[in-house]
Amino acid sequence: MDIFDKLRKGMGPIGQYHKEGHGYFAFPKLEGEIEPWMIFRGKKVLTWSLNNYLGLANHPEVRKADAEAAAKYGMAYPMGARMMSGQTKFHEELEEKLAAFVGKQSAFLLNYGYQGMVSIIDTLVSRNDVVVYDSESHACIIDGLRLTTGKRFVFAHNDMESLRKQLGHATRLAEKTGGGILVITEGVFGMAGDLGNLRAIVDLKKEFKFRLLVDDAHGFGTMGKTGAGAGEHFGVQDEVDVHFATFAKSGAGIGAFVAADEDIIRYLAYNLRSQTFAKSLPMPMVIGGIKRVEIMQTQPELKENLWKIAHALQKGLKEVGLDIGNTESPVTPVYMKGNIPEATNMVFDLRENYNIFCSIVVYPVIPKGQILLRLIPTAVHTLDDVKITVAAFAECAKKLKEGKYYAEQMSQV
User: Fold this and answer.
1) Is the pTM of this model over 0.70?
2) What confidence tens digit (pLDDT) does each residue in 314-353 have?
3) Are 413 and 23 in contact (CB under 8 A)?
4) CATH architecture of 74-298
5) Phi/psi zone of residue 27: left (φ > 0), alpha (ψ -120 to 50 degrees), beta?
6) What class does CATH assign to 3-57+301-401?
7) Which residue of 76, 182, 249, 254 has the fewest C-beta atoms within 10 A of its own C-beta?
8) Same fold, 3-57+301-401 and 74-298
């Protein structure tokens, strides 16, 4: 069979709906300034789908820093990978600020979060080592595990008895291979909004010998007293051996970083294939990153307003009888039941008749018969935005229960 024929016959679990949903449910175009109200298909919609937690995407100081750096350096400088010719004092300055912010000895910049995490796991773990990871870990973690030659065990999501059992298996295996154990979890799980049980995981270090890697993409900037992340929130940041976060969420930018002891970061800097063989982050993103970290540390009112909006949104949704699961973070999921056509009809109604734009998640990302609508509050949303949204969701949930969205097949938009 021609490899292209195979691809054309099976578009994949999500791609199978491309004819019905492309440009609307998948690959939609939001236009205009990055703010709560944006343009979708020619009309203004209240948007809850942007990982712009602190509102930095349109912050005047950030825009100014980005623009001035672009005007001075362009998008090409520095040329080459960091190890060869792409190193600058600004890259080093940003790394120093990030390490200090999250309470680690050293940090290393990464071009992208997804790419970076895949490479971190591949670099930390050799064939004799064992990984124990949470079952609901992000795709970048799963793909990193697919690359590594090490053995792995998965524990039930946030289930400490399951983790203890898997650590027992991992310990016995590591004793045979002579390898070590790496536990991987997330600070904030980006789909459901619940937190990794970091305190309990750290407590297990008294029973088992392992190192802990935490993907804190959604916790950086939002969790903890200073915004350093979920480790700070739980008071266990010192016990997080490898801290990973990205600029794509609270930072409203591009890039990521990994922070740990200085010798571990030095090892990663010289062995991360995704960075060794990739061009260095362009100067506007680096200088812009410095400004973003500065604002996170000097303007705490942004995080305070984020949480004010998040609490109001979550309280309002619960008061009208909606299920938001066990979120303990700004991530706000709304769980409903129905088939894929019902889900898409409801989202169409929300967007076209209520002017509400949010992300829809259905099978195969979550089990069949379930619908997840995910809302991301930000520091620049208002309480009026919350009121409008809660009222719309209450009405749409009622229509769903009454069967008004029922359909056998997903209709073409």
Assistant:
1) yes
2) 999 999 999 999 999 999 999 999 988 899 999 999 999 9
3) yes
4) 3-Layer(aba) Sandwich (3.40)
5) left
6) alpha beta
7) 76
8) no
